Amino acid sequence: MSDASNAALLDVRDVSKAFGTVEVLRAVSLEVKRGEVVTIIGPSGSGKTTLLRCVNFLESYDSGSIRIDGKEVGYRDAGTRQHRSERDLAAMRAETGMVFQSFNLFPHLTAAGNIMLGLRKVRGKSEAEARQIAEHWLGRVGLAHKADSLPAELSGGQQQRVGIARAVAMEPKILLLDEITSALDPELVGEVLAVVRSLAEDGMTMLMVTHEMAFARDASSRIVFMADGGVSAVGPPAEILAAEASNERLRSFLARFRASHF
Amino acid sequence: MGYTLNFNLIWRHFDKLWGGLLLSLELAVISIAIGIVIGLVLAVWYVSAGRVVRSIIAAYVEFIRNVPLILLVYLVFYGLPTVVDIAYSAPTSFVATLSLYSGAYLVEVFRSGLEAVPRGQLDAGKAIGLTPWQRLIHVRLPTMLRITLPALSNTFLSLFKDTSVASVISVPELTYGAQWINFNTFRIVEVYLVTTAMYLLTGYVLLFALRLVERRFRAAR
């Protein structure tokens, strides 16, 4: 299935989803290749976060398919719309990492404990081994000295870096980043983005929803512009920014964005 | 007033009160332990169950909450053995009643605690690939416990006071001991003054200890 090295690692095809009568995703298709960093931008309510949450099936979708490494995510193969068993779903989700806007650390566990939980319970590693991996990743995000701190004792930026370490320590095939700097004070954004950048340099495959336009431009292989639940434009950063002239929605999004951010 | 306080007779029978206090504590501890198990199991079941199970659990909770405890004690001790062929001692019967009673209140406490666990934490548990059972044990319950600990302390305190109801079926706990002394010495003011002080003091000590546990728990890793 994934014989060619340029085959898509993540293949989203014609995914649609409605909350009641509101269509949040309309036949969205997009691909992420191994080692690519793909950024999704777009106005709020355009379905970015919903799409991301469909990729690890935190949200179900009504039609279309999402495949990671050729394997359908939330539904059993063979064309049925039957949900996978919870056990199956858990195993699928262990292959994707997710970092959340509101960090979502487990408040009763230390920084190291947060990272170790999945390693112990999902990956079946020993306490010592899990601890070692946790310390390695805490070092990578610059928090080696905070291993035994509780989330409540950490700043927002530090919590988010633990959140990233928790996700990547599981060695996921793809990392999903959901507006991970939106809840941070401006002066803390840089430290988190620096970590993401270094992961990208290591070749980590990432799908990222962000409002950090400069970061999207500098760090992405491709940018996806979403509007009204559909993909309005896709391409390398330079191309997307050039497409502004011909894409009315993109132009108004970027104009509003510039007005509020610069 | 021509009444002079005389505590001598109370001190002579103080073993009735002291033994009663210890039994009251024992009844409360055993009942809340069983009640916690009932409450946890039913609360977890409730949040994941369908309509039928939910209504059955809700019916149990509503029944217990709307019937006076003393009536439940009579029902279980006098009523049940006449209908079904079972026999038990008064303390056993009371513990069973108080367990069911506290269980019903704790279902509510735990259920709202489970629902108060932020959805983001559950998402995070899903995202790292935990199974539903693992999410319950490692994510939901620890957070729920921290949320509900103060309510749990309060339930235990009121349960301790509720053990006084056991006196109506002659379980020799603290209030029963007080009644016994009253009937045999007629020093009604003295005996109930001492008994009140004993409930009050024990309650304060318990509250202090439980608040310490809560604080420790909140700071613990």
From TrEMBL, chain A:
Its main location: membrane. One of its GO terms (molecular function) is ATP binding. SMART domains: AAA. SUPFAM superfamilies: P-loop containing nucleoside triphosphate hydrolases. Residues 10-253 form the ABC transporter domain. GO terms for cellular component: plasma membrane. It is found in: Cell membrane. Pfam families: ABC_tran. Keywords: Amino-acid transport, ATP-binding, Cell membrane, Membrane, Nucleotide-binding, Transport. InterPro entries: AAA+_ATPase, ABC_ATPase_HisP-typ, ABC_transporter-like_ATP-bd, ABC_transporter-like_CS, MetN_ABC_transporter-like, P-loop_NTPase. It is a peripheral membrane protein. Belongs to the ABC transporter superfamily. This is Glutamine ABC transporter, ATP-binding protein.
UniProtKB/TrEMBL annotation, chain B:
Residues 21-210 form the ABC transmembrane type-1 domain. GO terms for molecular function: transmembrane transporter activity. It is found in: Cell inner membrane; Cell membrane. This is Amino acid ABC transporter permease. It holds the Pfam family BPD_transp_1. Keywords: Amino-acid transport, Cell membrane, Membrane, Transmembrane, Transmembrane helix, Transport. The lineage of its organism: Bacteria, Pseudomonadati, Pseudomonadota, Alphaproteobacteria, Hyphomicrobiales. Coiled coil: none annotated. The chain crosses the membrane at residues 20-47, 59-80, 191-213. It is a multi-pass membrane protein. It comes from the Bacteria. Signal peptide: none annotated. Belongs to the binding-protein-dependent transport system permease family. HisMQ subfamily. InterPro entries: AA_ABC_transptr_permease_3TM, ArtM/GltK/GlnP/TcyL/YhdX-like, MetI-like, MetI-like_sf. One of its GO terms (cellular component) is ATP-binding cassette (ABC) transporter complex. GO terms for biological process: amino acid transport. It comes from Mesorhizobium waimense.
